[in-house]
From TrEMBL:
Annotated GO MF terms: ATP binding; ATP phosphoribosyltransferase activity
PANTHER family: ATP PHOSPHORIBOSYLTRANSFERASE, ATP PHOSPHORIBOSYLTRANSFERASE ATP-PRTASE
Classification via CDD domains: PBP2_HisGs
Native organism: Parapusillimonas granuli
PROSITE patterns (UniProt xref): ATP_P_PHORIBOSYLTR (PS01316)
Catalytic activity: 1-(5-phospho-beta-D-ribosyl)-ATP + diphosphate = 5-phospho-alpha-D-ribose 1-diphosphate + ATP
Main localization of the protein described in the UniProt heading: cytoplasm
Protein's pathway: Amino-acid biosynthesis; L-histidine biosynthesis; L-histidine from 5-phospho-alpha-D-ribose 1-diphosphate: step 1/9
Gene Ontology annotations of biological process type: L-histidine biosynthetic process
Domain notes: Lacks the C-terminal regulatory region which is replaced by HisZ.
E.C. number(s) listed in UniProt: 2.4.2.17
Statement: the UniProt record of this protein carries the keyword Kinase: no
Protein name: ATP phosphoribosyltransferase
Summary of the function given for this chain in its UniProt record: Catalyzes the condensation of ATP and 5-phosphoribose 1-diphosphate to form N'-(5'-phosphoribosyl)-ATP (PR-ATP). Has a crucial role in the pathway because the rate of histidine biosynthesis seems to be controlled primarily by regulation of HisG enzymatic activity.
Amino acid sequence: MSPASLDKPLTLALSKGRIFDETMPLLAAAGVEVAESPESSRKLILPTSSPDLQLIIVRASDVPTYVQYGAADFGIAGKDVLYEHAAQHPGGLYQPIDLNIARCRLCVAVRRGFDYEAAVHQGSRLRVATKYVQAAREHFAAKGVYVDIIKLYGSMELAPLVGLADAIVDLVSTGGTLKANNLVAVEEVAQISSRLIVNQASLKTRAAKLQPLLDAFAQASQAQA
Ligand code: PRT
Ligand code: MG
C-alpha cells in the first residue's frame, strides 16, 4: 500500500435522517465535529473537523454495499438493513459494535379487527407485504406458517388497507404510523438498532487511524445504552 493511500482520510458512510442525527453525538464524543448537515447541504462528501475523517451520505440500504466494496472504510446501518444485505452478500463485513442508536422494533402488523391468530392457525397461506423479505421469510418459517411474500419498497402500511396483503412486516418506533392507519402490531420479529460495520481490508491496513475511532464509538454507545 502506498504512503498516499495511508494518508487519505478515513471514509465513514452514513444515511441522512435519524442515523446521521444520532451519530453526531458519537462523533462529538470522539472529538469530531461536522459543520454541514446533509439536510441543508447537497454535498454527498462532507468534511469533518478531523483531517483524518470524511463522511459520505448514501441511502440507508446502500451503506453496507459501500463498506463491503471498500468505497467507505466503515459505516453505520440498521440491523434490519444488514440482515437483508447479508442474505444477498454473505460475509465480508465486520460488525464490531452495536451503537444502540436508531432503535425500533421489526413487527408483524395487521388491520385492526383482523383475526391474526385464526389466520395463522388455519394453515391457509398468509399474504405478507414487506421491504424485509429475508427477515419475514425466516420469521414465518420458524413458526411453520405458510406465507406469500410481496416485496415493497415503502409505504407498507397501505398494503393491508387496500387488500394487497393480510399483514405487513415493518419497523415500528412510536407506533404512531400504525395507529394513524388503523393497524396494530401483533408480533415482534426483532429488536433493531444500528451497528458499526467495517471493511475487512481497512480494518487490517488502516488500524492506526480506525482503532481510536472504534474505541471512542464503543465507549460513547455504552454510555447511551
Ligand atoms: O427512508 P429511505 O427509504 O431513504 O430509507 P430508510 O427508511 O431505510 O432510512 P431511514 O433513514 O428512514 O431509516 C434508517 C434506519 O433507521 C432504518 O434502517 C432502521 O434501522 C432505523 N429506524 C429506527 C427506522 C425507524 N426507527 C422507523 N420508525 N426506520 C424507519 N422507521 C419508519 C418505519 O418504517 C415506519 O414507516 O418509521 C415509520 C414508523 O415510525 P413510528 O414512529 O410511527 O412507529
Ligand atoms: Mg425511511
